[in-house]
Design brief:
292 residues, alpha/beta, Rossmann fold, Pantoate--beta-alanine Ligase, Chain: A,domain 2, 7-stranded mixed β-sheet, 3-stranded antiparallel β-sheet, 11 helices, 38% helix, binds pantoate
Length: 292
């Protein structure tokens, strides 16, 4: 274990799983709970809000910081993904120095074999992100399962911005009978509505401002969905972005929240959600909104 020191206060940071497992074992008792927030670093207020929720609901909190290579289908995206470990540990320290930070190497996780396990998520993996990012969810399933084995959390916290990921993690937990409760947390947004994301760091100030259109469009789509068909709403969103040359729409989809199957005809009593993925100057952003 290494410790992050500040004004004689120390925060435990683990670079290897053996020491983390031993430390968790030493602090865990029969009535304690471990809250876990898995991240890929470049922490923003959205991540910190997950940690706050975990701190409020558990006796101990573990945060992992690991840019997982197997979930990137685009090598340039992996290479450019921001890595800011020092700043991240400072932010966690300021939030609460009792949080345990796990920042492993690729080898500590993959032990020489950087490959994904193959999962069956009952079709959740074939929609939206799964269509455009082949292999992505096998990578997510692999790392999340591995981290759960190491941390043995009672509760694990995931942001709803990655709603498909959240459903996939829930499915993985139920299919593998893992003893962990998955908690989906509200999307944290910047003042202009842009969903917080580590990728926002790569946007220029003006791109960040313009990207407000993503959430504004989702809000309007939600309004239109009250009186229009799925097809009409999808066509309207397509036209919005066809008319805006600063954005390259990858997909806009309306799908059943449970199965993620795209909506063709609206079915009464089903909960629908809109999903969007869009490029701004080669930077890929996603967002989602409940249409209920
Ligand atoms: O959402 C993320 O940041 C990642 O997909 C996760 C869950 C930390 C797995 O690498």
């Amino acid at each position: 274990m290494f410790a992050f020191n500040f004004n004689k206060i120390t925060m435990p940071i683990f670079y290897g799983k053996a020491a983390l497992i031993e430390f968790i074992h030493s602090v865990k008792s029969s009535d304690s709970t471990i809250g876990f927030v898995p991240t890929m670093g470049a922490l923003h207020q959205g991540h910190l809000s997950l940690m706050q929720q975990s701190l409020a609901e558990n006796t101990h909190t573990v945060v992992s910081i690991f840019v997982n290579p197997t979930q990137f289908n685009n090598p340039e995206d992996l290479e450019k993904y921001p890595r800011t470990l020092e700043k991240d540990t400072q932010k966690i320290f300021e939030l609460n120095p009792n949080i345990m930070v796990y920042a492993p190497s690729v080898n500590d996780i993959y032990e020489g074999k950087v490959v994904s396990q193959s999962f069956d998520f009952d079709g959740l993996e074939n929609q939206m992100e799964g269509k455009f990012r082949p292999g992505h969810f096998n990578g997510v399933g692999t790392i999340v399962k591995r981290l759960f084995e190491i941390v043995s959390p009672t509760n694990a916290y995931f942001g709803q911005k990655d709603f498909q990921q959240l459903q996939i993690v829930k499915k993985m937990v139920s299919k593998n009978h893992l003893d962990v409760t998955i908690i989906g947390c509200e999307i944290y947004r910047e003042a202009n509505g842009l969903a917080m994301s580590s990728r926002n760091e790569r946007l220029s100030d003006s791109e960040r401002e313009q990207a407000a259109i993503i959430y504004q469009t989702l809000l309007q789509a939600k309004e239109k969905f009250k009186t229009s068909s799925c097809k009409a709403v999808k066509q309207w969103v397509k036209e919005v972005f066809d008319a805006n040359t600063n954005f390259d729409l990858e997909y806009f989809e309306i799908a059943d929240e449970e199965t993620l199957i795209p909506c063709d005809e609206k079915i009464k009593d089903k909960n629908y959600r809109a999903f969007i993925a869009i490029f701004v100057n080669n930077i890929r952003l996603i967002d989602t909104i409940s249409l209920k």
